[in-house]
Design brief:
This protein has 297 residues and is mostly helical. It has 14 helices and no strands. The chain starts with a helix and ends with a helix.
């Protein structure tokens, strides 16, 4: 595939991938009482990792020496992207609000853009910086339902620390995924990272299984894990890796701002929740922001 075609495909994924990740919010809302956080994250990445590995089985065997050489990097990426970023969101969601989660996660693209410019030397034009600010304003407008005065009355709770940790973990994963170059294809690399994440998750999940005071998993919880593995796991992370390779960490990160808008549409379609004017105004800010960030120089 030519470079121009790869870039166009990556730009399409900018709008598709956040929709896949938004589905994980449905899993998070449904999971309490059905499956514990670390058990959910472990099964999610076990299934996804096996799917990645099956698709890249020939390459993984051919590149087995490379896999062994980079095992430490895979373990770090698995811990950041699959363990901490995954399970901590489910933990934080038990005691904090959707508003707080959205506000904290809104910092992620800003952190990635700043760190990419400083550490990865990804230069950003003034138009791209303006696009990040515009998209941030749009997503905050949606999160705050157009009531900006509510920002001063937000109450922070202990669960927010889990969400903040997950946000920092995702920032680290995004940066290191771009920083640490690999000869492996996206699918083969994600197989190694996902299964390494399973190893990190295993002792935490085991503690849930040994705790008789909680129901670590139910049949419905198992189904949730399988669903999370397919769309917000396998499909979303593969798309994210492709986008990062073609566009860069900073440009890709701004696509996260589509998440709250997709969540609103999903709630309207599946849960009968109403759409409001602030959703439309947020969209009018986010879309031009993404255009400014991702357009060619």
């Amino acid at each position: 595939m030519q470079a121009s075609s790869r870039r166009r495909w990556a730009l399409v994924l900018v709008f598709v991938t956040p929709a896949l990740w938004t589905l994980n919010s449905l899993v998070a809302r449904r999971a309490p009482g059905l499956i514990e956080p670390y058990s959910l994250a472990l099964l999610r990445w076990l299934f996804a990792g096996l799917a990645f590995a099956f698709g890249a089985r020939a390459e993984l065997w051919t590149q087995r020496a490379e896999l062994l050489r980079d095992w430490k990097r895979h373990l770090v990426l698995g811990a950041l992207g699959m363990c901490f970023c995954g399970a901590w969101v489910y933990l934080g969601g038990r005691s904090t609000t959707v508003l707080n989660i959205s506000l904290i996660y809104a910092l992620s693209p800003v952190l990635i853009a700043a760190a990419s410019a400083w550490w990865l030397k990804e230069s950003l034009t003034r138009a791209q910086l303006a696009g990040i600010a515009l998209a941030l304003a749009g997503v905050l407008h949606v999160v705050l339902k157009g009531q900006w005065a509510d920002l001063a009355t937000v109450q922070w709770v202990a669960g927010d620390a889990w969400i903040a940790g997950a946000t920092l973990s995702w920032t680290g994963y995004s940066l290191l995924l771009k920083k640490w170059h690999s000869p492996l294809s996206a699918s083969a690399r994600l197989a190694a990272i996902s299964l390494s994440g399973v190893l990190v998750l295993l002792p935490f999940a085991a503690s849930e299984w040994l705790d008789s005071s909680v129901a670590a998993m139910s049949p419905e919880g198992f189904g949730l894990a399988l669903f999370a593995a397919v769309l917000p796991g396998y499909a979303a992370y593969l798309a994210y890796s492709v986008m990062q390779h073609e566009l860069g960490a900073a440009q890709v990160s701004v696509s996260l701002y589509l998440g709250p808008l997709y969540a609103a549409v999903l709630g309207w379609m599946l849960l009968g929740e109403a759409l409001h004017l602030y959703h439309g105004l947020g969209l009018l800010l986010v879309l031009p922001g993404i255009y400014l960030v991702t357009r060619g120089r």
